[in-house]
Structure formats: structure tokens, C-alpha cells
Design a protein that fits this description.
Layout lengths: L3 E2 L32 H16 L14 H15 L13 E5 L4 E2 L1 E3 L4 E5 H6 L3 H17 L2 H9 L1 H8 L3 H12 L5 H16 L9 H10 L14 H15 L8 H8 L3
Parallel strand pairs: 1-3, 2-5
Antiparallel strand pairs: 4-5
Length: about 270
């Protein structure tokens, strides 16, 4: 049995350089103002990624040189999403992918600037390539839309973010820890789900591949659903949204690539 089901977004973090108000998880206004331009996403993302990779006890990242086939496969999925032309910061962010060896954690997240992390737990839990592409699209959407600064400002304050951008190790540690447990607003989750559909609609995958995770959770009949489901849009609503958006856009993709995905999972 999985010990940890974290996925508060599925999970990601990014910096939002815009003004305005959004809606939080309980319909409260998000902190809408930020002083950070997109260049700071890139700087902070690189710093957070360094923090993560410097802590192998907490984040046992699989070495890319020793796991060439696995990384070739997951990078091909990333490249296919980027090739859609729908990712605004395609050429700005790193879009680096790392795999964390932890079969008991259903988790994926993205730092500022597009550093994407997948735990082997969620890789093994999903059934086919389109589902993984849907999760990746969702994570990339959070980063591309720069959602997280609103949540990080609310939970940590502007000063911590400023200190982290300036390289303060303590603040960077807070940011790194915070992004793992970050809970996005309902509106941001819905927006990232919709973007995932838009990305995949330009591919041969089913555009609603991201619904697969929630369909598996629903089918399990768990009496104690993961914590993130209590603060996010309901799984049933998210499943319905994925399917209806794909239908509305007339997305033709059908390729699941299940055999290829099974071979990928067998690498771990």
C-alpha cells in the first residue's frame, strides 16, 4: 500500500508576475500582486533544483547517465508537449525532467522555471503513456501560467520569496519544503487541468489523459481519499471536465501507447 499520496496539484510551483485577484481554495481572494518578473522564475527555479539535487536522502533522484532509456522515454513525452506550440514559456524555462526513486509516493511537481519531478510511485500507478502525458501537461501548465506565487505569498510572505531569489539558503530551504506541500486554489487547478487538455489536443494522445489518475482513485473505492482531494475540485468534477473539454475542442487523439509505457515502468 502506498504510504504517501501527496500531489497537491498534482503538484507544482512557479512565480506569477501579474496583478489582480484570483479565488483561493475556499473562495478567498489569492494574493494577486507580485514584484517578480519571469527572469526570477528562472533564477529561483535553478536554485531550488540545486537544493533538491543536493539532498539525495530526501530526493533520491535517478542518475540520468545510468538510466538513459528511462530518461529518453520521459523526455520524449516532454518534447511532444513542448512541440504543440501551446506552452508560452517553451523557450524561457529549463523544462528539465528528473525521476525520484520512491515507489511509495504518488507525486509529481514542478519548480519555478520548469524543473519537473516525477516519483516512481506515480509512474508505476498510472496505466499508459497518455495518463503520464496528462499529468505532465498539468504540471507544466502550473509552471507556464506562473500560478504559485499567489499561494507562496499567502503562506510564506513576499520577504521569504525575495530572500530566496537573492540566494538565502534558509529561505530556499523553506521554498523547497513548501512547494512539496503547496495546495493550489480551485481556480488554478481547474485552469491547469484545462491547459493539459489544450496541450494534449495537439498530439495523438487522448486530450483527456489527465483524467486517468482520478478515474483510478475513484475506481479504488477508498474510504479515506488522499488529503489533497479535500481541498481541490472534486475528482468527479475533474474527470467530467477533462472529458467535456476534450469533446468541446474536438480532439482526435486516441494513442495510449500502453505497451511502451509498460516497458518504461519495468525499468524501475
Amino acid at each position: 500500500m502506498f504510504k504517501k499520496v501527496i500531489i497537491p496539484s498534482f503538484l507544482s510551483v512557479a512565480l506569477l508576475a501579474s496583478c489582480g485577484l484570483g479565488k483561493g481554495g475556499n473562495d478567498e481572494p489569492d494574493a494577486g500582486f507580485t514584484v517578480f518578473p519571469v527572469e526570477k522564475d528562472i533564477e529561483l527555479g535553478a536554485q531550488v533544483a540545486h537544493q533538491i539535487e543536493s539532498n539525495p536522502a530526501e530526493y533520491p533522484i535517478l542518475d540520468s547517465a545510468s538510466n538513459v532509456e528511462a530518461y529518453r522515454y520521459i523526455y520524449a513525452i516532454r518534447d511532444k508537449v513542448l512541440a504543440t506550440g501551446k506552452v508560452e514559456h517553451k523557450d524561457d524555462f529549463a523544462w528539465q525532467v528528473r525521476i525520484i526513486k520512491d515507489d511509495e509516493t504518488l507525486n509529481a511537481f514542478c519548480t519555478p522555471g520548469g524543473y519537473i519531478y516525477f516519483y516512481t510511485g506515480i509512474i508505476k500507478y498510472l496505466d499508459d503513456e497518455s495518463q503520464l502525458a496528462g499529468v505532465m501537461g498539468h504540471e507544466m501548465a502550473h509552471a507556464d501560467l506562473r500560478h504559485s506565487i499567489r499561494q507562496m505569498q499567502k503562506t510564506m510572505g513576499v520577504q521569504v520569496l525575495l530572500s530566496a531569489v537573492l540566494g538565502d539558503e534558509s529561505a530556499l530551504g523553506q521554498i523547497t519544503t513548501g512547494l512539496i506541500g503547496l495546495k493550489f486554489s480551485r481556480s488554478h487547478e481547474t485552469e491547469a487541468d484545462r491547459k493539459s487538455v489544450a496541450y494534449l489536443c495537439e498530439t495523438d494522445w487522448p486530450a483527456d489523459g489527465g483524467a486517468g489518475f482520478f478515474e483510478k482513485i475513484a475506481a479504488s473505492g477508498s474510504q479515506t481519499p488522499p488529503e489533497f482531494m479535500s481541498t481541490h475540485p472534486s475528482p468527479d468534477n475533474r474527470i467530467e471536465n477533462y472529458h467535456s473539454w476534450a469533446t468541446d475542442l474536438g480532439c482526435p487523439g486516441k494513442a495510449l501507447y500502453k505497451e511502451k509505457y509498460d516497458a518504461f515502468k519495468a525499468l524501475f
